[in-house]
Fold:
Amino acid sequence: MDREAAVVAAAVADVVAVEGDFMKNTGLGYDDPMKYVGVFRRVGAALVDFVVLLPILAILFWATSYSRTAAVIVYFPLTLLMLAYRVYFTGRWGQTLGKKTMGIKVVQVNGQEVGFTRAIYRDSVNITISLVSGTLMFMALLSLPSVEFDALKLGDKYLRIMAATPPWGHKFNAVSNWWYLPNALILLFNAKRRAVHDFIAGTVVVYVDKSAIVVGQDGDGI
Structure:
């Protein structure tokens, strides 16, 4: 009898564990201890990251204004550096400097650390868009005569670059710009506030000090 009771107890424990995992992963009937981050904190983090990356953007701007040769030399390395910033900081610490400033962090849906593989998955669409757009810019710069390009004013330089971009490139840039809107809007319509890139990577964004946050009190309930 004791042996049979032990077997039954073990079976019940397994069922409870499976049910608990299901509730945790779906959010159905589960008091989730993690507090998920809405739109406003994410936007704040993105603005801080923009400020962090401003020196790199300034160098790109200066290189384009200075000469075609300078723009060609720095464009791809600096683009890769900006992409590496997001992936490395997210993979290493779960936070860019912007997210750290705002007190939020990227974790797996089960609360574990993200790691570099998921960080790459999470940024995969942005990486693809940046690399394709960068390639288009690079090809356009190479197609323009250096002496003629260097003699133009900055605004005219960008107009020439646009004119040298193939038609499919303009379509790609137009479509890719729309990616960011649904990516942001979709997090409004799920309980864990996951954007598209979170679904791709199996991640969520949570408050670092979840015990200090009550959803809705800080104005970030959406």
User: Anything to note?
Assistant: The longest strand covers residues 104-108. The CA atoms of residues 27 and 190 lie 10 Å apart. Residues 35-212 form one domain. The longest helix spans residues 39-66.
